[in-house]
Specification:
alpha+beta; Ctag/Cox11 (Pfam 04442); 5-stranded mixed beta sheet; 1 helix; about 35% strand
Amino acid sequence: MTHTDITEAPAPRNNLKLAGALAVLVVAMVGMAYAAVPLYSIFCQVTGYGGTTQRAEANLKGVIGREMTTRFDATVSSGLPIRVKPARPISGAIGTPETIEFTATNLTARPLTTTASFNVTPEKAGVYFNKIQCFCFTEQHLAPGETVKMPVTFFVDPDIDNDKDLDTVTEITLSYTFYASDNGGS
């Protein structure tokens, strides 16, 4: 005598439940993908992770005697026909607001639109680097052959002096990377 297994087809009701669960999962995953960037940005601003700087209106904590040198760096995305000259390094007492200028020149005979992202090294110092005014994430429109000055006003938070991981740091570098804007650079 032979025994044959007979498999019953799943009920249509079970298929509908499975399809509904999968649809909810897909919607949740898409929602998480959209939320990931803003949530990561908030995390970086709060913790200074990845060299993310802070925003401030002014330095309300005063100036301390410890000196800090701030260096500036600029990188231009390949294929973007602009020349960017960073500011010279500056040194001063921590907490002193400083204003420096980057200079960008459009090397073409057509208008260009760029934007820049930034980071601070060492990364742990990012939480103490406060920008009062900055051109970052703002589209910069350059006419053919035009040279523009892009100011940055910043200060290093005196609380850096209380961070034992940074007590030997004497230099911070603010780096910008310039890209063509979303509209293709023109």
